[in-house]
Amino acid sequence: MESENGDVIQAIIRKHPGYQKFITHISALTESYLPSFIHITDTNNLRLTSSVLDALFGNASSMPDYPPIHYAHINAVACFNTRLFFDTVLNSLSNWKVSWENGCRNWPGDDTQRFNDTVDSFFHGLRILRAQTPQGPSTAAKGKEKEKDIEPAQEEPVMILVVEKAERLAENLPELIVPLSRLAELASNLRSSLFFMSQVRISVAFLSSVRWEDIKPPLGASPDPYCIDVEPPNKEDCIQRLVSVFRSVCLARQASNVTDKTYHPALLPLYEHYAAVVYSVCGLYTRDPNELQYIAAARWPGFVKPVLAEHERVVAESRSQEPSGEDTEGELDVDLIPPTEEARMRLTRYFTPSLTAALDVLYPRLTNAAEWAMEHDPDLEAMSTGTRRSDHVKRATETSNLGVNNLPRMSKFILIAAFLASTNPAKSDMRMFGRGADERKKRRRKGGSPKKSRSQSAVAKIPQRLLGPAAFPLDRLLAILGALLEENDVETRPHAAEYKLSGEYTEMEVGRAQVYAAISELTSTRSLHRMTAPDRLDGPPMFKCGISYEVALALAKGLGVPLSDLMWDPA
Amino acid sequence: MTVAGELEDINQVRIVKLQPRPFDDSKARQRYIYPTPPVSWFLTLIYGATISGCTIDGEGNENAPREGSYSFFPERDLPDGYELRLDAYKAAWSKCLNRIQEIIRALHSPVVDSVIDQVENAYSDELPGLPYPEIPVITVNSSSTSSSLFDEIASRLECDDLFEDSSGNYVTHIFPGECPNIMSTMKTLVSGFVTRLPSSQYGEIKRKPTTSLAIYDISLLEVWYEAVREARGDGEEQIHLVVMLHDFEQFEPAVIQDLFEICSLSIRRLPLVFVLALASPPSPSYLHATYPRSTLSLLRVRNCSLPSSEDALHEILLKTFFDPEFDPDVMIGPATIEFLTDFYTRHSPSLDTIISILQLVHMKHFEEPLTLLVSERFLPDAMELLPQPDSFPFLDSIFTRVHHSSLIPSVDHSTRWRNEHLDSLLDAVDSARYKYRRQAKILRVAFQLVLGIRRFMLRQGYKSAEGDRTLSEMMCLAIRGRFGKQCSYLCIMVKKLAVGRLDNLLDDLADFFQGLPEDICKDGEEVLLQIENARSLVEQVNDPSSSTLDIATQLGDSLSAYLQTRLVSLEESPLWDIWYTGSTPFPSELINPSLRASMFSGLLNPQDYARRSSENGIQDGDDRLLDLPDTSVMFKGYLESGKMINVFDWFESFAFEVDAQRERLKKRRSSQGERRSPSKAKGKQKQLDLGVNEEGEESEEELWKLEVQARFVRALHELDYVGLIKHTGRKADHVLRTVFDPPE
Q1: Chain A residues touching residue B346 (CB < 8 angstroms)
Q2: Does A364 lie in the same domain as A468?
Q3: Does residue A560 lie in a domain region?
Q4: Residue B725's beta-bridge partner residues?
Q5: Domain B135-297 classified CATH 3.30.70?
Q6: Residues on chain A touching B214 (C-beta within 8 angstroms)
Q7: pLDDT at residue B15 greater than cutoff 70
Q8: Contact across the interface for B284 and A525, Cβ inside 8 Å
Q9: Is residue A42 domain-shared with residue A130, that is, in the same domain?
Q10: Is-cis flag, bond preceding B284, omega within 30?
Q11: pLDDT by residue (tens digit) across B479-498?
Q12: Cα distance from A403 to chain B (closest Cα, Å)?
């Protein structure tokens, strides 16, 4: 029996590399006695850990050493109020199938009352559920349990409730944390005499990316949980996981008869190397197996394309040599073989730079994997001639330039003004934007800062540009905008004879309704951040610039504004 | 006492009539501040037909003079000219608007197609091997606030094909107002689908409010979708649940994060597709600036954006005002095109901007009484109205114009009237209209021809054909009749063309002329003939010898001659200003006023905006300051004071002004009372005087002082509210000025 269980667990461990310790830990606990309140901390990847838990408990019937298990896995984000929480937990523990025909009824219990209005009724529901289980569970999975229940000395069924993202529970439903942490005790004790099987064995497991200390309710109202930490995956685990996903995709695609050979089992050795390359390039920046998987999936079709093309060429050749043999047989004859060591090296060398590019674009999700894969589909001809680099460079510049052309001219000026207002100290404005012969000379602090100041302040001053944007009032933004417009925009304006004084026209332009409209529009698109509450009337509204130095530079270039001359502390 | 009467007592202001001041540019420029003509006038233009008759009067007096109440040129307007012109305006604008909307629809259609396409393929073109299924999200960047684009997308998605009885998709719309928190958002999302029956075979199924799944539970949607799938059977067709989030920028990001997270949990079971309607440009991307990576990594974002905004503007202008197939009632002039282009690129690149600017141009154009004659539609009414004596000034103005134009030989004005007949006058107008229309149409054809040649040259790789002018600048040049330089340059290029290319150009030109509408065809016959000739010659000549050069030269010359005679200013035709806005400047202050300048001009010259009341229409010109509204009185004091204002002094000076106003009012009342109905008023007045005398002037004075205080505080707060006052704790009873140097 021991070995039987062990096999299943080994299979799960193989499927989830890096979780060996965690899996053995949990399964050992389950076999002996599961603590009633567990807190699992995983700072790396909740999604994976929760899939491990699902694998362990979801088909508990295949684990003979386990007690019969009723398993509910809920997400604290999705269950944002108590009713939803109770409904989901009960439906899931009882394995109840909601159907449209019966009016989407929840698990009915003994059909006398509702269980989703208060915590008390929820406990009541749990007890009824517990009372009902030995008699006749509704699904096939429970049928098995029942048989086992009778044989090994009435082993008591265990309910396991996993709450994913428990930190959100503390935000949305803080009142539930204490009852959940003592669920076993509360559900059993109250009015226990009413039920013939009063003992409810239930374990609550919080799965969270923060530690228990951070969500613990005050005054020690909850008992301390049994804490389990999930270790971060190491290099081999990440690579193994990539490979195991490849295997499962292969199987799935074979099962559904996909003719495309991108995920062909014969390519597994190649994929193993590929996974190692992906890890070596991206592992520096992210070790999240899902992110690595995402990037690997985006690059793989391009990576194997030359191999598949070669294979197709071989197939076509062999077909032409064979005098009109049946097509299907001809194809079967030529097996897809992984490329030679040398070819693999060449492939790797060719595609490694594009992996970095993929990381740059895909990790912040500037585009999606499918689109990226399509865009960066390698051109086989170009590959042979080696003209790839210039092509890639061209693409990169294209994408970076695309950014700023859609804004109207005035919004561009506003953004530059906001950038300057956020990076320059307010004291410097007069010197930077003042017009006059003397001021020109003493513009801008010199690049090499004087030694005296350095000796005085031991800490080197970090430029504002690196510290992040500073807040500025609307008035200052408008003043800088006026200065920018006066210097750079006078020629492009339509002629207006009525303004005779110098600067008069600019002043009128700065005060126009559309300028204010543009500022609030930029705020709504988060290119500017409003720092004061919108309903506050006193004082000028404060803003912060929301664009980066690169974007500001591109905008300034488009408008012909000498941005670096206007920055107090250019880097 | 009426409400208006009470108001009168409080503030001594009564608006008799929303009467606009004539919009005079020269005067405005002298005064530096560009005064905004009251927008209310434009509002009345829009709703004019319903409210034009009733003027807002203290006593609700309907008998106020009505003739010419909205006319800027009452001396030469018809009695009902305003209403008639309003109809003419409506007709002209709706014609123009329909055309623009057609063009916009055509501009949108590729976007709609691509969105539909992406929705249909949302689940079929997934990349294999991804770590987890993503939510397909399609962002649509549309600068237009009108929902027509999204309505069209939704309707196309819901009944994709006319021939299929059941539609493939379900669409739900979610608006920001419905989503203050995650519960209501989920409720909107789920109920948006679930309220529709999965199929006709299911009857209405009652869900119990307490023991069924909650309406905001995503599992309810899953159950519903199961039922839909069962009802549909295992068809090939994939059903999508499309969720459209309108005005996406207005949603609370925290709520949307949760929404995506919840949907991501059940994306394996629910084929959801999100369509996000963004108003911001595709980059810098709102989505990436606002949402964290953890949310973005749940989505597969694809973008559909509208064509570049500048192209859209040119497309609309070209197809509305420079298309031989379309004949707008009112042609916009270069000043308008320049303003529109500048405003569009500088401030607000949205299609709505174009529409509202063009609408304002139309409105302004119809201020002119003569514009009544803009189209033939007016004529049946005119025949009844014109013979009446009231219409004479109007007729006279037409007559003067027609007389001075070249249509009728010049004879002495007064003697001409004797033999002038109404019919012949209207005939003259008709012929002027015909002449103008023809000229405009020919101009459009010629302009399109130039563009065609330019396109051809660019296609052939001659970069210099592009010139340094933008398309809108070329339009301005063409309608000003100053397009000669560009044309002749292109014609020189034509002259130098080699044989093979010349042949292609000839084909293009022949196609162009043959594609023209029939009434214009004749005009181009000569050139067409030339082209045909040249074609046959080119076919004969096979080798590139000198003779082809001759053909090219000839063709170039004839094109040049053709264009030169046709690209002439529209202002040269008689009565042009009826159909053409010419170089009338656009009233830009209406769309983009300078806030501070308009505020000051309002405070300094309130009479420009709302005419002050004098009792029953009698006005005095000399006591302007005394009749100013309280806020303006306060503002005068503000301007005269130093950097800090002592509030008590300010109050004293205010009270002085207001007292003087009151005195004047009293005096005026008594004098009027005498004038209007001597016996009655006298009696009343006497009684009143007696009453005042007897019951004590003191209590009245007390009340008056309270009133002055109240009015002072109110006016002070108004100034405070517009930001003219700053409170500092530095000096007791003092406030700080914020404006020191107002214009004028």
Answers
A1: 408-410
A2: no
A3: yes
A4: B737
A5: no
A6: 83-84, 87
A7: no
A8: yes
A9: yes
A10: yes
A11: 888 888 888 888 888 888 87
A12: 5
